[in-house]
Amino acid sequence: MAIKAKITTSSIKKLKPSDKRLTDTEIRGFHARIHASGNIHYYLYYKTHGREGNFKIGSHGQLTPSEAREIAKVKSGELARGIDIQKSRLDERQETERQRANQLCKYLVEHYKPWLEARNAKTADRIIQTIQSGFADFLKTPLSEITARKVEQWRNQKVKAQMGKATVNHYVNSLKGAMSRAVEWDLIPSHDLKKVKTLKVESTRLRYLSPDEEESLLSTLRERDERLKTARDQANEFRRVRNYPTQPDLREQEYSDHLEPIVLLAMNTGMRRGEIFQLKWSNIDFYSKTLTVEAGNAKSGKSRIIPLNDTAFYVLENWKPISQSQYVFHGKDKEPLTDIKKGFLKVLEEADIEEFRFHDLRHHFASKLVMRGVDLNTVRELLGHADIKMTLRYAHLAPEHKARAVSLL
Q: What is the rounded CA–CA span in Å between residue 377 and residue 302?
């Protein structure tokens, strides 16, 4: 049977299923119900304007008796002021649902990603992953609550943690693009991320190979190729002695694997890593000695034709009999390669080349062209830059080349 007492931790502990209900002696209508399972819920019973209702405050365990009491006081006050607390709760739930629907995570997957895929399917996943990984703590945040202040706080933390300024800018710009699109689609009225100014980054880094480094890299690649062939020779000899099936003789082909051809192609065409990985044999014209970078694989979204010099032509001509896919360089299941970082870093280490990335092979290509007098617009076209400013950043002349030019005066 129902009992009456002040609802406290002590009185709740004493409550038994047979009691069914505990009515508070201080706040009118405030009571706790206990079910046969032992679960307890807090309620506020009320009558107003000839209507009665039972407002559920919450469950014991999620709320303490004192917390439930405070909510009961607040709701009693609202009732006294003529507020319909049930409608108010419904409005709160609808607002919560609206905010949840506009959380960054849902917006990215349900709205932004499909739009990106329609424009350029190749880059859509990368952009979404950039925002999701960079702003993991923002994913449950409604778009309307993503403010310049919060993003600047995030940025300050990343800079203190030694994240590169260019990387920070990339994350922030990716988020800005997503937020601006949400405004255009009327998902939010506006955003203030324009207040987050781009961090100044020194863009003078231009790493290319010195003549000695280039010679060291090429000789190291050849030495690596010889080691692989020697290892295959020894393995096959081992198999022959034991009457085991032998593996293909690597001596019968120019390259043991894809690493050397990829590096040589990058050095002699200036292609990006992703463009090389997506390159198909149908993109190669051996008659005109050219290759085509398809628009869908180019960062600029525009196709371009690159003439093949003797080295690049030799590489492709000798690699073609080895390749077993529509893709020039393929991995498992004849699908495009996705990474060569481990092998490339090992070669750099053996060649004693420091602070060099695969992308720097592109710098190397562009710098050699400029140092040999090729005009910047031609370099721009070969690199696939939409803006000549990018070419200037990638293709500065070497300091020693400038010195030689000045010495001519």
A: 16
